[in-house]
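Subject: sequence -> structure tokens, single chain

Hey, anyone have a minute? Need the predicted structure for the following. Not urgent.
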Amino acid sequence: TGREARGVDLNLLRKGLSQPEVERMFGRPSEQSETRARGVVTTTLLFDRDDYSITADFVEGLLTHFVVTSR
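Reply:
Had a minute. Here:
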């Protein structure tokens, strides 16, 4: 369908997934960074795919925000 990346249905991507679950879905991230604000560490992963780029933010290992951008 039009909502698949690497054979994964993007509709399965949702807040609350763990970082390992997202990495199993989309493979190793092409970039990873961390920011700290008020004692909270946010890990941001970037997954580059042929048709999509996915930016995913994790707090305490759980997905809190994501953006899927088509190419």
